[in-house]
Amino acid sequence: MTDLSTTRCTAWAITRADGTTLGFTDHDADLTFAGLTFRAASGMTASTLAQGSGLSVDNAEGFGTLTADAMREADIRAGHFDGADVKIWQVNWQAPAVRQQIFHGTLGEITLEGGAWRAELRGAAEALSRPLGRSYQRGCAAVLGDAACGFDLSTPGFTADTTLRSATETRLTLPAIDAAPRWFERGQVQILSGAAAGLTATIKTDEAAGDTRILTLWSPLAITPEPDAQIRLLPGCDKRMATCRAKFGNLPNYRGFPHIPGEDWLRAIPKSGASGESLFQ
């Protein structure tokens, strides 16, 4: 009888959002099963999986080396592996048909460390820890353009497609745009072409200066886009009812509670007075 303790290895399958599936193994030779080749040259391994009963979240870490044709630094920085589907098996490398799936979840935050990558492995129960329901708050709880908001961002005059003149990590210089200054503050910039294609960032400030539009970002893009890259600008929303009405004409879908009593009302005390006067001071 074969001693499985000496013929057992681990195999990982990572499926990105674009449908690309990559296979890795800690065995010293490639394995093939389930229609996928699991490569031994990846240097990938994982910490011990913390698996429990019930609905606890079973999280661990995966780490490996950067390679030119698998886990490339540019793809990681561009976000292609964010939220990727992960499956892990224990496999008998002498007979790959003898295997057991021990994990199914997603990749969490990925960090780069001197030619290697490290990522949190989030178990399938992770989704159960997300808060549900609405918050009772003054500002709108919807995200501009989502199902709750209902506003169509493709409406003419609200978004803008243009070409980048120059860029640093947090500053983008563009040609003049037919939109009011500060129109895109709190909105998003989407990179549509070049090495940074697919990246998005939130706009902190939006300034018009003659024939130039200057955007400052809240945080740097993982890859600085090159000049002449195509970009798309989405309008910003400050979550106020007045903005929803005046800028977007979308007041029926406002998802806030602007008439919540403030702290002054909560501290008010009763007072006596004539009929029709306020009973609080």
UniProtKB/TrEMBL annotation:
Where in the sequence is the signal peptide annotated?
none
Q: What InterPro entries does the annotation carry?
A: Phage_phiJL001_Gp84, Phage_phiJL001_Gp84_C
Q: What domain of life does the native source organism fall in?
A: Bacteria
Name residues in a coiled coil: none
Q: Where is the Bacteriophage phiJL001 Gp84 C-terminal domain?
A: 182-264
Protein name according to UniProt: Phage protein
Q: What is the lineage of its organism?
A: Bacteria, Pseudomonadati, Pseudomonadota, Alphaproteobacteria, Rhodobacterales
